[in-house]
Specification:
Layout: H1 3-15, H2 18-24, H3 29-43, E1 48-51, E2 54-57, H4 59-85, E3 91-98, H5 99-104, H6 106-116, E4 120-127, H7 129-137, E5 143-147, E6 156-168, E7 182-185, H8 189-202, E8 209-213, H9 216-224, E9 230-233, E10 244-247, E11 257-264, H10 272-283
Parallel strand pairs: 3-4, 3-5, 7-8
Antiparallel strand pairs: 1-2, 5-11, 6-9, 6-10, 6-11
Helix pairs in contact: 1-2, 1-4, 2-3
């Protein structure tokens, strides 16, 4: 079994479906099925079995999958370091990012970086910040962009901060909020805790929540159509919006802000691609200070 087999197992595990896995691997379903049977013959045990919804790994298959995942990560790391030894900015740069940051800020950042370093093979995974943190811990990525405060012992750089704002089509005062419909944006736990804490510090009753949505854009569009008020980070609010936007503050007068951090995996700063990316951010003044 080799690197190709490890990646086959990893893809089958991600898709849990032979047809979808074959499509991702640019092969046919019969060819993939044949390769899986060959692996089973090589290790002397069944790896997967079919169910109506796709495939399920056997206990032996799950054990082999864990080994395959580790081998893929180790081999990718070896390739990165070998490329790094050539003293040229090239090869893989594996990043994870908060979905919000990836939507609003990352595309232009990556466009400029890749234009300057076209031989870098960039890969990106997005999710909630706690999911990006897990990717870093598992060494699936070497850089992670997270929103809010998270415990991290490795290198970290502040990418920026923006205010948390009350957003509405009307110029509302705080006294208006209890009687007006509230649009709840179900964000990640760190921001949700800040919003809940801010509310408890100012009000004794819960808000009149009439809508719950999963994306910042949806909450903004509902507010833009006069369907209620919401609380959003400024990253998702265009400057030319018709909305009334009021930055919030804590009772002690301190502004309520949302920070964005770039976290580095253990050993990441040894990679030329990582150092080049961070230098690019500094050159373009995308890192404060």
């Amino acid at each position: 079994m080799d690197d190709k087999d490890w990646r086959i197992l990893k893809t089958v595990a991600e898709e849990r479906n032979i047809t979808k896995a074959a499509a991702r691997l640019f092969t046919t379903q019969p060819a993939l099925t044949y390769r899986l049977k060959s692996m089973e013959e090589e290790i002397g045990a069944q790896i997967v079995f079919r169910v109506p919804s796709g495939v399920v790994f056997t206990p032996q298959g799950e054990y082999l999958l864990a080994y395959a995942t580790e081998m893929v990560q180790r081999f990718d790391k070896v390739k990165e370091y070998i490329k790094n030894m050539e003293n040229k900015v090239q090869g893989a740069l594996r990043m994870g990012s908060s979905a919000v940051f990836a939507h609003y800020s990352l595309p232009s950042m990556l466009k400029g970086f890749l234009a300057q370093y076209p031989e870098v093979e960039f890969s990106l995974k997005t999710g909630l910040s706690y999911q990006v943190l897990r990717m870093l811990e598992k060494q699936e990525i070497v850089l992670g962009v997270v929103r809010g405060e998270h415990a991290w012992d490795g290198d970290k750089l502040l990418l920026g901060e923006e205010p948390i704002c009350l957003v509405s089509m009307e110029n509302l005062e705080f006294d208006d909020l209890l009687r007006k419909p509230h649009i709840r944006y179900n964000t990640d736990p760190t921001l949700q805790k800040d919003i809940d804490d801010w509310w408890r510090h100012h009000f004794k009753k819960p808000p009149n929540t009439t809508m719950e949505v999963n994306t910042m854009d949806t909450a903004r569009q509902l507010a833009l159509n006069g369907l209620g008020w919401t609380i959003l980070p400024a990253i998702g609010l265009p400057k030319n919006d018709a909305l009334f936007v009021k930055p919030l503050s804590w009772r002690n007068g301190a502004p309520m802000v949302r920070k964005t951090w770039l976290l580095c995996a253990d050993g990441a700063m040894e990679l030329l691609t990582v150092r080049a990316f961070i230098d690019y951010l500094r050159t373009q003044q995308l890192i404060p200070g």
